[in-house]
DNA sequence: TTGAAAGCGCTACCAC
DNA sequence: GTGGTAGCGCTTTCAA
């Protein structure tokens, strides 16, 4: 069921069928109608590989996300969904790539020309994948930004502004000793930008408000969160509040506090950055900046398609702020 | 940077380069080495579209998941990750497709031959997508199974066995009135197989144990779960336990119980089927059958690749059982 | 308004 | 062990 067959049955040439389909050349109404009826009858659809080969555009976008070994988070799921959705709306497919081992996966996408451009998640401050794509001159957009963000296109959440807002709020409530619960040791070491910028914002704001701080790293699961609370209370017993960017540990943090006999928000406050699903699942609900993952995914696709259309367009980026949703987990500092 | 250029520089014909790469014909060690050195020098990689066109295999798999409008769950994320991983291990790509509007997305994958086969999630008991693929004779595997499962290939969790196990356990602990918290009205109406088979298992086991039951549907979010508890306690005050398959509502169910002044598991027990991440996030941790999403994703890829290699192989499927992990949310029925 | 034909980059068959 | 070449199914230039 190919274009030759359609042309034969419609009594026209292959090129005419092609033009009737693409609209790149006028075709008389009668021939177009004849062609269309053959197409409908046969259920013809142009072959994607042939098309891609002929015009050098695959009409697919690569979505590079971290390997399964690391725990996935809810935001990641939201990104994936919204990227797929936005791409579909623009008649593009999304090719998933769990970039793991030395990024053979990424180079496969790029060098075998499987996609027209790439969206990368889980960006590091110094990210060799970004350097690679820059060198290769391959179109890409990152969700998150590298240390020197002017050279690239990205959409990012302003993590430092958000953690700073959390500190400001807690300071306003009278908290003087606040702990920061970051992502895992591994991710921080790897240089995850959200972890680093989140910490920066936290520390700057704390200094500004004269707050005593201590930063901890925490594996992305409930057990780690629970254990960490014990450690925090042992190392710095005056701690009355936490700011966290680790949504996967959230349930564990709550459990740890409960176990320590601390009631939230009466005895202890907790705020942070998280997917709203998690923020709303815990009791009391978490006062937090909700990651606008859906919006970020859509934006990333927009930026990428724009770049693919026009490879020489100047770097664009979007830095999203996000209000802290006041829920129930932050209250006045307890008198001690 | 194409095969012609490589051939020219190595002083051989294009076919020789092709064979050196594929190994489909012996090539002398010296020529192979010469070719390889040119390839390394140029960083040559065969173009995926051309390859797909020439040999009729795209080396990508389609992964069809529900549209973003419905809330995603953690299991879905795990599936996606493990499918991508397993596919990558077999040198295949994964093309995401959020099948929504009348499944134009699915027919695009199939009819434009964008993929060699399809994995479908979120199966309904009567699923028109399955009929479509069956008609089209297109290779596919489902995660979940239709009402008449013998005609297709699938990997599924034995939801009815698992909910039955939950009932059995609760009955053994003395509970006589148990509520079932299903997925949303919309999903149940649509005929989601896990929702229906889960309910069936629940009801059969309840009858067997002489337990009084009532089944509820619940939107996939915490707020709905919280509201539902109120309703359950109002409509059937003797209820002392819940079996749930709605992991997204879990946090809300817990909150609703707390609000009602019910302590888990002292006053009220709760068990179900959930991703372990959620089961472990709530306090007390949920006694539940953990969805082995990772394993299911790997199996689905295996089955699909097997089918693609050998289109005439007989239907295969895998029905997974899963032990109920005893955590802390189920206890003896309270004396009433 | 339409047709013929030259690619796109690769594979695999047919020769030698 | 190697080369020549005819496709794979489509797009687009050139010509009419």
From TrEMBL, chains A, B:
The UniProt record lists the HTH lacI-type domain at 1-55
Keywords of this entry: DNA-binding, Transcription, Transcription regulation
Q: Which CDD domains match?
A: HTH_LacI
Keyword Membrane applies: no
InterPro entries registered for this protein in UniProt: HTH_LacI (IPR000843), LacI/GalR-like_sensor (IPR046335), Lambda_DNA-bd_dom_sf (IPR010982), Peripla_BP_I (IPR028082)
Superkingdom per UniProt: Bacteria
- Give any GO molecular function from the UniProt entry: DNA-binding transcription factor activity
Write down the PROSITE patterns for this protein, in alphabetical order.
Answer: HTH_LACI_1, HTH_LACI_2
List, alphabetically, the SUPFAM superfamilies matched: lambda repressor-like DNA-binding domains, Periplasmic binding protein-like I
**What protein is this chain from?**
LacI family DNA-binding transcriptional regulator
Organism, scientific name? Actinospica durhamensis
């Amino acid at each position: 069921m190919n274009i030759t067959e359609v042309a034969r049955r419609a009594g026209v040439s292959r090129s005419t069928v092609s033009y009737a389909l693409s609209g790149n050349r006028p075709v008389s109404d009668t021939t177009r109608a004849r062609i269309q009826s053959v197409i409908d009858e046969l259920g013809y659809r142009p072959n994607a590989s042939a098309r891609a080969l002929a015009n050098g555009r695959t009409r697919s976008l690569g979505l590079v996300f971290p390997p399964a070994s690391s725990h996935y988070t809810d935001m990641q799921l939201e990104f994936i969904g919204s990227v797929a959705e936005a791409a579909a709306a623009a008649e593009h497919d999304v090719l998933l790539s769990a970039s793991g081992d030395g990024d053979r996966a990424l180079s496969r996408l790029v060098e075998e020309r499987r996609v027209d451009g790439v969206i990368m998640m889980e960006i590091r401050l110094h990210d060799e994948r970004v350097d690679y794509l820059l060198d290769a001159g391959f179109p890409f957009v990152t969700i998150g930004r590298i240390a020197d963000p002017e050279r690239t296109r990205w959409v990012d959440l302003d993590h430092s502004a958000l953690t700073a807002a959390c500190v400001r709020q807690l300071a306003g409530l009278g908290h003087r000793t606040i702990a920061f619960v970051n992502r895992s040791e591994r991710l921080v070491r790897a240089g995850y930008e959200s972890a680093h910028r989140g910490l920066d914002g936290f520390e700057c704001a704390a200094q500004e408000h004269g707050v005593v701080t201590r930063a901890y790293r925490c594996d992305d699961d409930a057990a780690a969160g629970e254990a960490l609370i014990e450690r925090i209370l042992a190392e710095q017993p005056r701690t009355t509040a936490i700011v966290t960017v680790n949504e996967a540990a959230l349930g564990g943090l709550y459990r740890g506090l409960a176990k320590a006999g601390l009631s939230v928000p009466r005895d202890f406050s907790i705020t942070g950055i998280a997917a709203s699903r998690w923020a709303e699942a815990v009791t009391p609900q978490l006062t937090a900046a909700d990651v606008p993952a859906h919006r970020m995914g859509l934006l990333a696709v927009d930026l990428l398609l724009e770049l693919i259309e026009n490879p020489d367009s100047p770097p664009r980026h979007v830095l999203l702020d996000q209000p802290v949703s006041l829920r129930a987990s932050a209250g006045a500092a307890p008198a001690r």
